[in-house]
Amino acid sequence: MLRTLKDLFDNLSASLAAPADGQSRPEQEHTLQLATAVLLVEVMRAEPTMADSERDAVLHALRGKFALSEDELQRLLELAHDTARSAYDYQRFTGQMNEHFTQEQKVRVVEAMWQVAYADAHLDAHENHVISKVAGLLHVTHGEYIAAKMRAKEAAQLG
Length: 159
Known about the structure:
Distance between the termini: 45 Å
Strand content: under 5%
CATH architecture: Orthogonal Bundle
Protein name: Co-chaperone DjlA N-terminal domain-containing protein
Number of helices: 8
Domain Co-chaperone DjlA N-terminal: 33-149
Organism: Hydrogenophaga taeniospiralis CCUG 15921
InterPro entries: DjlA_N (IPR007791), TerB-like (IPR029024)
CATH superfamily: TerB-like
C-alpha cells in the first residue's frame, strides 16, 4: 500500500501542470492536497531557518484539512518540499484552488499560512510577502486576509 501511495504522490507533480478537466476525482483531490501543502511549505521556506514549530504547524494544518494517515501526511510534506524547490510561481497552485475551492476554503488556506508564519512566534517580512501574494492570487479580500491574520495571531497567543 505504501508503494502505491508513493507512486500516486510521485505522479501529482505532473498533475499540477496539467488541466484539471482530464483528472479523475481522486487525482483532483490529491492535486489540491499537494497545492495546499506547497503553499504552506513556501511560508516555512520564506525564512532562512526552518523551525520545527513551523513544520509541526504545516502538518497540523494538513491533518485538519485532509483525511490522511500519518504516513500519507509525511509523504505529502516531502513531496511538497520537493515541488516547492522547483516552483517558479504560485499561479499553478492557486489556479487549482480557484477552480475547486470555495471562498471560505481559500480563506482557511490563507489562515493556515498565517498559522505557519506565527508558529515560531516571529513574523518575517518574507513570510508576510508570500502570504500577501498568495492571498491576492486566491482572490481573498483585504478584510478576509486581515481577519485570517488576526485569528492566526490570536491562536498563537501573540496578541
